[in-house]
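## retry 2 of 3
previous attempt timed out at serialization; input unchanged, resubmitting
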Amino acid sequence: GGGGGGGPTGPTPSDVDFEWNVTRDIEPLAGGHDMPSGMWSDGTTLWLLQNGDGADDAIYAYDLETGARVEEREFELDESNRAPRGVWSDGTTIWVSDSGRNKLFAHHLATGERLEDRDIELTRRNRDARGIWSDEGTMWVLDGGKDSLFAYDLSSGELLAEYALGSGNDDPRGFWSDGSSFWVSDDGAKRLLAYRLPALPAEGEAAPEEPPALERVRAEDFEQPGRVGNNSPRGIWSDGDVMYVADANDDKVYTYNMPDAMDARLASLALSGVDIGEFDPGRTDYKGVIGEGVTETTVTAEAVQEAASVAIAPDDADEGTDGHQVALEGLSAITIEVTSADGSRTRVYSVALKAALQLGPAWTSFEWTGPDGLAVDEAGLPEEVVAVYTWDEAAGRWLGYLPGLEHVPTLNTLTAFSSGATYWIVAEEGVTWTIETPAPDSR
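## retry succeeded, writing output
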């Protein structure tokens, strides 16, 4: 799989905005994967639904670079999820829509475990759910019966708003947004229609009698799909470079060039003396762990597109020295704002700062003195720590955190530190840290 056409007898690749890229196509799809629908990717793996005529509904996984199937990343859909149309994930939970159910089905992305408490119940008007997408605050859900776009609060599932799609968008399928515009694939129109992502109603604002019309952005439509044989566009997703479009009948995923002028992504981000983990251009929020003794950092940020502008806050503390210097004392965050070359898009990357948790080799327990709610996996624990435990008096049970097993929620019941609580540390063999056994022994 992968690689697309472009050979001596194949289509000619293009580097023109919105045109068929060819070289990033995924083909052929796995045997039996003959009616793909919704798709989502974490930038490495592409998950693509199968919505066949029989009982073969499933979710397939492909390597985004090679197009090879990655079966170990696939999982079983809920037995009642018989019309899967849209899929989206926050990297931990993955939701699947169903055009015959008033519900988004939630699974754990890494294990496939059903997470029924994370399901999102949809309004009855949204009972023909198609493509879905979220900015990790709002879940947006297309509806093919009402030709509408619904907005829900991702955490509570509360219905926030409904909007009307434009004329000619009568068979909406896939949905993807860059946070400014969004695109809808349409089977009848055989193209991707572009809209401006709407602002949600203010809290307490009464819902209008009729769903307001969405603002069309025709200059950003993808017109080519129907012209190059992509006549049954379904799920869509973009990495910022190309737009991936599944076809229900062609046994492949097509790719089209995203415009460089509206690219507001960073290509790289680094802070000297501050660990932010692995950088991903599609991820905007980071936790920065300040190294011991570090009082100043040099921020290095480069945009994907040379013509885009980059602004760092706070301002450079030492203009006489190369690089952007930032004093860290008393600072809670550093932000980097990228503006696209055409000025139509801005993207803000944020690094929340905290000092590394320091533990001496003789420590067996400690009381947390930092802010409540700090995620345990972001606390800068030394590599030798293999487990952290605390006793939950109210619940009468142990809470534990095991680094490297974040994907097993039944093991990692400790999610955040609480001020004043006592924690016990388990370290690797050969290190002098040991767990302190509290009374009573029954615990």
